[in-house]
Write a structure and sequence with these properties.
This protein is an alpha+beta fold and about 500 residues long. It has 2 domains: about 1-140, Nucleic acid-binding proteins (OB fold (Dihydrolipoamide Acetyltransferase, E2P), Beta Barrel); about 165-315 and about 375-480, 2-Layer Sandwich (BirA Bifunctional Protein, domain 2), CATH 3.30.930.10. It contains 15 helices and 18 strands. A hairpin with a 2-residue loop joins strand 16 and strand 17 (about 410-415). It starts with a helix and ends in a 19-residue tail after the last helix.
Length: about 500
């Protein structure tokens, strides 16, 4: 700590020396004409002779991430986004004031450079600096060995250091942005309208999850950070918008893990006059298309394995998956005691007071999900765990629903929407009873949503896709924290 304080004090002295020389240590505007990535793409392969002949001028800016001085010259490496570019700093080529900048320069500072492209004696592509502009003085030195920063805690808490130290992290988040943009384009081209719905709800709904609670002082009421936008998006379907989507944050007051963050990005979309089978085809088209755009193929690497995203994907019913993976007797689906015994035999921890369907779902999550490495649509979920989905005509105990699993985790959840207001009321009441019995994740009765359904909602299919998990897949990351800029962490120890 003493060493850090000393380095900081030395940098503050340099800052004062810059000011005395009439150089602003925290500049204002600087016109960047060129980006490192463009210069490298356009000229990075040119020979020394070609660069000497063409005399290509450029103006770049970035953070100094390496610095070597010797006599009246030196080299600095600028980091511009995820790309790096060497700059040659020679006293004879710079003004007296510009060379004062060189003398007071530290790793971490930001500068602007105008110069000419050339190759050094060691053939390194470089900018020969003719003028320098100081843009920002870094008072805090980069951590030791920052150029190979691997400490996970530091990487997540101080993402700004992670982005400096690990250029590949830039690429992950650039890919994230590109994927979200491609999803928007895909849906808009198919007639969807992008909308925004409330983030604070008077009644939590749209998913089975525990909400965060806040309080609105002026109204004197408790509100809930949304766990899903579903019920509001379906109100828009009632209002006459045939195709809507939203990409935004959801908040769930649940555990933190490699696949769970309390706030996460979700895509939800709804299509009038469609059913869940239509969404199976749309989902295959969307995700395989993203693979083609990001990787140039539909077979992609993930954590040492190959994921084959070429459609069509496997369909497997919920009950059949449980039976086949665990070799169980179908009687477990109707007998709570047998289900409890099966869970114990399979080493699946369950609450001894849990309902039959909760026990079965725990068995599914613990034993089936890890086996779903290649893309698989799990279909025909029981009505008891699908309170917003339409009943199957052929078997009213099941629903027209699927969940998509890839690499052992849920990526999407979709169903033909329940548009019968009387059936929906009955299910809400059943959920409310479960809530009164202690299930904090069960739905409440949303009277306004029921009123909306009574005005008539056309046959509709809806789907939610976890954007963060999708990006984990396409960027080959094992943890959700590596695809979220600022993941939620425990408070930092003082």
């Amino acid at each position: 700590m003493d060493e850090l304080n000393e380095q900081r004090q030395q940098r503050i002295k340099k800052l004062e020396l810059l000011r005395k020389a009439g150089i602003a240590p925290y500049g204002s505007r600087f016109e960047v004409r060129d980006r490192a990535v463009q210069l490298l793409r356009l000229h990075g392969e040119k020979t020394k002779e070609t660069l000497e002949q063409e005399q290509i001028s450029c103006t770049v800016a970035g953070r100094v991430v390496a610095l070597r001085r010797f006599g009246k010259a030196g080299f600095a490496v600028l980091q511009d986004g995820s790309d790096r570019l060497q700059v040659y700093l020679k006293k004879d080529l710079l003004s007296e004031q510009a060379y004062i900048i060189v003398e007071q320069l530290d790793v971490g500072d930001w500068i602007g450079v105008t110069g000419t492209l050339f190759r050094t004696k060691t053939n390194e592509f470089t900018v020969e600096a003719h003028s320098l502009t100081f843009l920002s003085k870094a008072l805090h030195p980069l951590p030791e060995k920052w150029h190979g920063l691997t400490d996970v805690e530091t990487r997540y808490r101080q993402r700004y250091i992670d982005l400096i130290a690990n250029p590949q992290v830039h690429q992950i988040f650039s890919t994230r942005s590109r994927i979200i943009a491609d999803i928007r384009t895909f849906l808009i081209e198919r007639g969807f309208l992008e909308v925004e719905t409330p983030m604070m709800h008077p009644i939590p709904g749209g998913a089975t999850a525990k909400p965060f609670v806040t309080h609105h002082n002026a109204l004197g009421v408790d509100l809930y950070l949304r766990i899903a936008p579903e019920l509001y998006l379906k109100r828009l379907i009632v209002g006459g918008f045939p195709r809507v989507f939203e990409i935004n944050r959801n908040f769930r007051n649940e555990g933190i893990s490699t696949i769970h963050n309390p706030e996460f990005t979700m895509l939800e979309f709804y299509v009038s006059y469609a059913d869940f089978q239509d969404l199976i085809a749309l989902t295959e088209e969307l995700i395989s298309g993203l693979a083609q755009q990001i990787h140039g193929k539909t077979v992609i690497p993930y954590q040492g394995n190959e994921i084959v995203l070429t459609p069509p994907w496997r369909r497997w019913s919920y009950h059949q998956a449980i039976l086949e993976v665990n070799r169980l007797d179908p009687a477990v689906f109707h007998d709570r005691e047998q289900a409890l015994a099966a869970a114990k035999r399979l080493n699946v921890p369950v609450d001894q007071k849990a309902s039959l369907f909760t026990i079965l779902n725990e068995i599914f999550e613990e034993t089936v999900e890890p086996n779903l490495q290649q893309p698989t649509f799990i279909t025909d979920y029981p009505i008891e765990i699908s309170p917003l989905a339409r009943r199957k005509d052929a078997d009213p105990s099941l629903t027209d629903r699927f969940e998509l699993y890839i690499a052992g985790r849920e990526i999407a959840n979709a169903f033909s929407e329940l548009n019968d207001p009387l059936d929906q009321r009955e299910r809400f009441v059943g959920q409310a009873t479960q809530r009164e019995a202690g299930d904090e994740e069960a739905h409440l009765v949303d009277e306004d949503f029921l009123r909306a359904l009574e005005f008539g909602m056309p046959p509709t299919a809806g789907e939610g896709i976890g954007i963060d998990r999708l990006i984990m897949l396409f960027t080959d990351q094992a943890s959700i924290r590596d695809v979220v800029f600022f993941p939620q962490l425990r408070p930092e120890k003082s």
